[in-house]
Task: structure prediction
Amino acid sequence: MKRTLIRTQPEARAWLQLECGHHAPRTDPTATATATATVDCRDCDLRLIPTVATPTRQTPIWTAGTVPAALLSTHHTSVWAELVVVSGSVTFFDEDPAWEATASAGETTVIVPDRPHHIVPADDAEFFVQFYNHAAPTDG
Result:
């Protein structure tokens, strides 16, 4: 997934800071952050929450009968999140690129920011969404 390069580190560093909170290897020693510079983020493609991300807020526990209608149709988050299934199962659909996974009780599905998605809970599902923030990049 293409992500904007937001910070380059001093020449001694071998990585670049991306908008998603991940780092990308510096393959071009002259690479610098510009308003339009993008690189392919393999960690986003692997659905890995950045290590700098911290849990922030959590939704109430929903069921198939109480889930907000907006979650059943196409929407996206602007931050990292996890779908946490307490009981039953919930199927998660990424729409672009197409990907799906069903999580059962005790399992989670990572929600990548800025990807259109929706869910389909089973009749016996209980679940919530845990949202994350990631720290601002540092020079350290």
Observations:
- The chain is about 5% helix and 45% strand.
- The mean pLDDT is 85.
